[in-house]
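Notes, p. 3: input format for complexes.
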Amino acid sequence: MEHVKCLIIGSGPAGYTAAIYAGRANINPVLYCGLQMGGQLTQTTIVENFPGYPEGVDANQMMMEFRQQAERFGADIRDGIIVKADFSKRPYRLTTDRNDELEADTVIIATGASAKYLGLDDEKKYNGQGVSACATCDGFFYRKKVVAVVGGGDTACEEATYLAQLCSKVYMIVRKPYLRASDIMKKRVESNEKIEILYEHNTLGLYGENGVEGAHLVKRKGEADEERYDLPIDGFFLAIGHQPNTEIFKEWLELDETGYIKTQGDTPRTNIPGVFAAGDCADPHYRQAIVAAGSGCKAALEAERYLQTL
Ligand code: NDP
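Output follows (310 residues plus NDP):
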């Protein structure tokens, strides 16, 4: 069976940064890219908030450059998905989607999180053309435009507040007659003149010739009554939660109630020695590329130190 000193799972900013550091530390990292090479960022277009790119950078190009930088330092980057983990004893065992088995002294989990979507065909049709799951990434493209945010939790309120600074009008499409968000976030959106909350509304679809031009909505009116109408908008932002990609680790690792990997203090250490978590799979709060990259760095430094103790 193949033996690796440092196995990295995931190819977003956390995974690649871990690979850069682990490569430079000569611990011969092997990185499995996972389902979406380059991670969540490749869903967006231009990244304008990553330091070092004053003019912004194409998200796919940036992730290719992360990869090239990791390869330059000897990281072995492979297509493929880790589908099974056994952390019962060291070396830890991992299985790929091709049924290859590996054993690893250290594992850095950087599997990210996936934004939840409503499941409408139109979300796919207009992806990148008016549909987004990240206001911080894409909000800037909707300056002085009208947008809608779906969801009534803290994320939706935060995204709506952020977008209200840029857009001329922000609708919140909320399926319940109330917001689920914390009081402070509720007050913030309720008192913002640019934000209009559409309670008891659901989205049936989107329309538009060149990207999103509006949403087909349905408003619940009492027990059996409903009203359908079209709302003209330029952007449709999903904020109905994220799902961390941690399913295969739940047997071994401590997760919080929503599935994020619990780490110790501000370190990337998990409850299993030598297994580290970096990036969005362990971060329910910030979910930014730069934060993920920083935590990938920490995880690689921890892995290097851990290997010295073996
Ligand atoms: P939440 O699960 O808290 O909220 C999700 C929202 O989306 C709810 O309003 C939910 O409606 C709605 N929703 C879910 N599925 C659908 C659907 N299919 N159709 C329409 N609406 C839907 O997720 P968040 O991402 O907002 O927050 C996750 C966690 O992170 C929370 O604990 C939150 O407090 C925390 N957080 C904290 C922040 C802060 O403190 N600054 C910022 C962001 C997040 P319903 O209520 O009907 O279920």
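Residues 289-308 form the longest helix (20 residues).
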